Amino acid sequence: MTLVAVGRSAALxxxxxxxxxxxxxxxxxxxLRMLVVLHFHQLGYTPLQVALLFxxxxxxxxxxxxxxxxLGARIGLNRTMNAGLALQVVALGMLTLPAAGLTVPWVMxxxxxxxxxxxxxxxxxxxSIKLLVPGDSPGxxxxxxxxxxxxxxxxxGAGFFxxxxxxxxxGFRAAVASMAAALLFVWAxxxxxLQRDLGKAKNKPxxxxxxSKSRAVNLLSAARLFLFGAxxxxxxxxxxxxxxxxxxxxxxxxxxxxxxWVIGYGIVQSLAPYVTGHRSGRVxxxxxxxxxxxxxxxAPAAMAVLLSHSADATVxxxxxxxxxxxxxAVNSSLHSYLIVSYAAEDGVSLDVGFYYMANAAGxxxxxxxxxxVFQAGGLVPCLWIAAALVGAAALxxxxxxxxxxxxxxxxxxxxxxx
Length: 418
Fold this sequence. Notes:
The protein is an all-alpha fold. The chain contains 14 helices and no strands.
């Protein structure tokens, strides 16, 4: 076996390990979100109060992505990934207190740790791929990013289902304790197996380098903020509470429904390279991001119109969510490829961290709006705001770079990971 083949085999093993870490973390993250929403809704919290439980989760996600990218470039992505796993174990452990101990400040603090953990883990995983794929293989990079992102979201959907099922079967405390124990094992294995110094920059970045100097990265980050604000403004709090209070769905049914949506969304993300031109030898650019966002904006607007005219809510939400999920998955996968493509090779985590800081800011915006707008006006205004935010993402995407010449065939050589 040649040295090149050995290097590629080692890169593939690291990719599998990173993906496995990301999967395990995401399963607990999705389950925890569903557990918190449903459990505290059952305790009598209003939609806005439930949304505020996630306030620190999103705020600290913003800070973590910004600082975490700089930290990953200085100490290595293996350390930031393992730190994320360890913090999630701590956050889950904090929530195993008896019900009387789960005060709002305590839960918000646990959610803050979970937000830090999640974004350390995600930033590390996405940044690592840039370093494991040859720089002259944009198609391989697109497929690997799509596979990681899509599989992660399928597992997050499974986490939603797991959270609803565990809550119904065992209760909040036992569910959280079992997830903490499982993730503790994953963290211990990662400490031993994950490659040391992965992603450490050759030139140590200064703290002032936290903010991206790339126009493309800045524009894509703005589009990402609007895109994820549009998703969470109706999906995070408004939709599950609407299903529970207006349609009378059970915890199990809500968890299964949202899990099915996220799993399907993840599968579409994995297939995005084939949907957006992979077979014709193209990778996405700014034109692709604009076109897909423009189409996505029509989905929540159409749902809002139908619900305003007293259409059957179950049919509208089931069909509308499927269409929204398909289109949103393609948009998200395009963005995930573009940021890894735009990011600088040395200190890649700086650009990726800045981008996911904007992603977390969008989630924060959407989460707070989801609780506040739903409480004030119901689901329809949430959908109109979602449409407006996607429209803003489309407008920003018009300024993203476009390919000036056709990109060569994307099919990788047999030993490059096919």
